[in-house]
Amino acid sequence: MGADAQHLVKQIAALGQKTGAAILSFYQRPDSYRIQQKSNHTPLTAADLAAHDILIRELPHVIDLPCLSEESDAAVHQNPPDDYWLIDPIDGTREFIENTGQFCIVIARIQQHRPTLGFIYAPISGDYWFALRGQGAYKTDAAGNTRRLHCRAAPSPLTIITARAHLGKRMRDYLTRNFGDYQHICRGSALKFCAIAEGDADLYPKLSPTTSQWDIAAGDILLHEAGGGLRLLGNHLAQYGKGDSINPPFLAYGAGFNETALQRHFASMQETLAASA
Prior knowledge:
Its main location: membrane. By secondary structure, the protein is α+β, with helices and mostly antiparallel strands. It folds into 2 domains: 3-149, Fructose-1,6-Bisphosphatase, Chain A, domain 1; 158-275, D-Maltodextrin-Binding Protein, domain 2, CATH 3.40.190. The chain has 7 helices and 14 strands. It has a 7-stranded mixed beta sheet, sandwiched between helices.
């Protein structure tokens, strides 16, 4: 990674750390959360808004681009420009409220409908993950040690990662049909993508359309640069800023999933969804 890219990442990391400190000033202080319910029935806290304000104000000082946030007015997401920041100030607000620690700050740069930069910062651990198109995926820990990331070749059995420890019947049926024996771990927010990029997990299947583009953009490029990927139902790449911001079902995966395997898994996913409709 060149000097310019390293400088860019340092600037974003400093902003992530500043935003993370603001978030942690609210953490485990429920009286400060001031929880609201958004129109999509997801929670919003004072910490989300504080993080949003910092990022919206300061990201354009890193690269002067429009900044679209989960907490922005819905109208600004309808016709985004060709080059912009896409952010989720707190990905995993429920995890924040429940004090699990499994929440993060998510920042992506979108150019021509695809992510070219991704950054994920975990305020609790102080670790962050980043990727730049054509320059690899990396993790920097709280001590400042940076290493390049590579998804592991798919072992047997696979390790499946999901948001919750309890798997519903539809997910259990899908996993059993496709993978037989498998290991299962759970992690909140975009940290699931980080686990795959680090080689701690192999597959994150999402069967319900309950995520948005700002939830997956940074993880998308992180996985692609680490040797894995993310495909939407139908086995195609996500196109950011086109159509609805809500994602259809998808698979995020590590190494070892070729086109034939992906086609097979998506066909099975379609069957599972049709059977439960």
